[in-house]
Amino acid sequence: MYFFFGFYSAMLLIFFVHGLVYSILLFKKGIQNESNADKWLALFLLLCVLYISPWMLGFGGWYDNQPYRDILFYVPMQHLFFIGPVIFFYVQSLLNPSFKFGKKEWLHLLPGILYLLYSAIVFITDKIILKEYYFLADGADKDFDPGINTPVWGLWYFILYFL
């Protein structure tokens, strides 16, 4: 696996590894103690680790080399549509020990699920059906496109949970 260790990629790799390790440890603790709050916090840390992944891998040279470039293009890594609900469910499970994740709570995750579905459609169309770049014909990563993805729409959805 190709990875160029420059200053920026190495600095981000430190935070990536620590966040990933703590996420795994928190999830393990949540399973052992049957604590939903620990599981939600572990998921939040994992989402934060995924959020910095495109920059870490980009500074590591992945945008310059295939097939790594396609991995960055087609695998959604910035999940701001999930961060707001995950923080909400984390706080709910802390303040209300009897909180259970039910059918009604799935509606909070609907925008994130729809974004994952959109990402799957883009991948299937570009790589399997057409076998060429159609949705990503401009050569830009959709994770950084303010018209389509999370930097704008996800931020508004995230702010909605703090109102």
Give a short synopsis of this structure.
Helix content is 63%, strand content 0%. The protein has 163 residues and is an all-alpha fold.
Features of this protein?
mainly alpha, 163 residues, globular
Explained architecture:
Helices cover 63% and strands 0% of the residues. It is mainly alpha-helical and 163 residues long. It has one domain. Helix 2 runs antiparallel to helix 4 and helix 4 (80-95) packs parallel to helix 6 (153-160). The longest helix has 27 residues, at 7-33. It is globular. The mean pLDDT is 86.
Helix coverage percent:
55-70%
* Secondary structure category: mainly alpha
What is the count of structural domains? 1
Unreliably modeled segments: none
Number of helices: 6
What is the number of beta strands?
0
Query: How would you state the average pLDDT, rounded?
Result: 86
Outline type = globular
Distance between the termini: 43 Å
Rg (CA only) = 17 Å
Succession of helices and strands: HHHHHH
